[in-house]
Task: structure prediction
Amino acid sequence: MTAVPDDRFPIPEQAGPGSVWADRTGSRTLRGHNRRGVEIPIGKGEGEISPGELLKLALIGCAGMSADENLARRLGEDFDVRLWAHGNSDASENRYTTLAEEVQLPLEGLTEAEIARIVTVFERAVAAACTVERTIVPGARVTHTVLRDDQESEAVASRSDVTASESPNQQETTQR
Result:
């Protein structure tokens, strides 16, 4: 199914397969669309998702998709994963200063060395293939934490903070 905007406005010349659009539906509310027919209500009301939440979902969605095949080779095709994203914002700057990702994986029965390898695989896959993070990193610090599936509060490993001056190959993974 290919969706196109209605004819209220002409389609911009720059519009292509990856383009998205949003139509105003009310005061500070929009409906986002893509060409595959997906619609997302954008706002801060019930049943709507805020732009900041969309940003965080884009970040963890990209991370999950980037690492999926590599993790499947190590954890099995049908492995479970849940990704979380949290953001700290600075109201005076009107921007997120920190975005943190947490990744929950089934790690029971694995040795510490195997867990460390999975963390490395995840980090390298995201650093190499996550277009969203590679776009965001110069403007915000992004962290990743892989959580033990049986202990929500205990982190298995966390990548050090990334700053604009670091390349993806210079990012380190720390365990705690």
